[in-house]
Automatic annotation (TrEMBL):
This protein's name: Protein-glutamate methylesterase/protein-glutamine glutaminase
Keyword terms, alphabetized: Chemotaxis, Cytoplasm, Hydrolase, Phosphoprotein
SUPFAM superfamilies linked to this entry: CheY-like (SSF52172), Methylesterase CheB, C-terminal domain (SSF52738)
Highest taxon of source: Bacteria
Positions of the catalytic residues: S162, H188, D285
4-aspartylphosphate modifications at: D54
Molecular function in Gene Ontology: phosphorelay response regulator activity; protein-glutamate methylesterase activity; protein-glutamine glutaminase activity
Domain Response regulatory, chain residue ranges per copy: 3-120
Species the sequence originates in: Leptospira brenneri
């Protein structure tokens, strides 16, 4: 049985979650805390398998709590995030500090409340089975040597990621030089969150990063992040890559979907000039699209199990035969340059 500690300053949230999970034979709520200081006292006593942590709390912040928790008790933490700019920004910081994932709090409707409960329950069960937080040091990381005018057949780099992807992307982009082909990214994340994530990467990685917009012409050395709740497609016209941002049904359970982006790249001759990478994440989004790029003549990389927060998406791709090379996260920047 998975032992859960609920940390939230709203008593109604603590009570509702406790009641809902009491009906699940696989989850036991071993304690609740109204603030991070109380949680700090309970963790050594209860040794929970998973912690659900509210983003916005008085006193000791969730970020400060993670700074204490992860080095001392590497317990998977799922953030409960409000749908606000401050909530999104705090959530992104929490993911960088070692939180495993987040669930957006409901918008007030019953349907969205049930969505939150189901999503939270699934993630508690996933992380309660032994996954440990992984932190990747990015400060003082020197960038790798660039192409220095070298000609390459790779004209586009495409990356897909989900759970654990924010840290993985931060690590990779910190290491990559700024004279590479354009990079397009799908990271499973709601709208507004992607805006702030792109801004944060732009400020910290030494690369120009932006949230993708419809009609963007891709420039070498630039990074384009798919906007939340919209699909990102890559097109080619007159030798230039450009982006389409579209709203249609979820694919592989997601919007944006890695499969949508990868499949768009595999069309025509684009795929043979693409290096595609599938990083950590739940489910199988991106596996079929990665295979399509490989079949069209492109090169593919999959993150290995040991370095993945969740070895779901890259595992499915590996089983499909879609992965040319399966390597650890720490090796991915070097392998990218080897392909160029």
């Amino acid at each position: 049985m998975i032992k859960l500690l609920i940390v939230d300053d709203q008593s109604v949230v603590r009570n509702v979650l406790t009641e809902m999970f009491s009906n699940d034979p696989n989850i036991q709520v071993v304690g609740t805390a109204s603030n991070a200081l109380e949680a700090k006292r309970l963790v050594p006593q209860l040794l929970p398998d998973v912690i659900s942590l509210d983003v916005d709390m008085p006193g000791m912040t969730g970020i400060e709590f993670l700074d204490w928790l992860i080095p001392n008790f590497p317990i998977p933490v799922i953030m409960l995030s409000t749908y606000t700019v401050s909530g999104a920004n705090a959530t992104i910081q929490a993911l960088e500090k070692g939180a495993m994932d987040f669930v957006k709090k409901p918008d007030g409707t019953e349907a969205d409340f049930l969505r939150m409960l189901e999503e939270l329950k699934n993630k508690i069960k996933k992380f309660g089975l032994g996954s440990k937080p992984k932190q990747y040091i990015t400060s003082n990381q020197s960038k790798l040597s660039g192409l220095k005018g070298k000609q390459t057949n790779i004209k586009l780099i495409a990356i897909g990621a989900s759970t654990g992807g924010t840290q993985a992307l931060d690590f990779i982009l910190h290491k990559l030089p700024n004279d590479l082909p354009p990079i397009v990214i799908v990271q499973h994340m709601p709208e507004h969150f992607t805006t702030l994530f792109a801004q944060r990467l732009n400020q910290t990685t030494g690369l120009p990063v932006k949230e993708a917009e419809h009609g963007d012409i891709l420039e070498p050395g630039h990074v384009y992040l798919a906007p939340g709740d919209q699909h990102l497609l890559v097109r080619r016209l007159a030798g230039r890559f450009y982006l389409e941002v579209e709203m249609f049904d979820k694919v592989s359970g997601h919007r944006p979907s890695v499969d949508v982006m990868f499949n768009s790249i595999s069309q025509g001759k684009m795929g043979s000039h693409c290096l595609a990478i599938l990083l950590t994440g739940m489910g199988r989004d991106g596996a079929v699209g990665l295979k399509a790029i490989k079949d069209s003549g492109g090169r593919t990389i999959g993150q290995d199990e040991e370095s993945s927060v969740v070895y779901g998406m890259p595992r499915e791709a590996f089983l499909l035969g879609a992965v040319d090379r399966q390597v650890s996260l720490s090796s991915i920047p070097d392998v990218i340059l080897q392909y160029l």
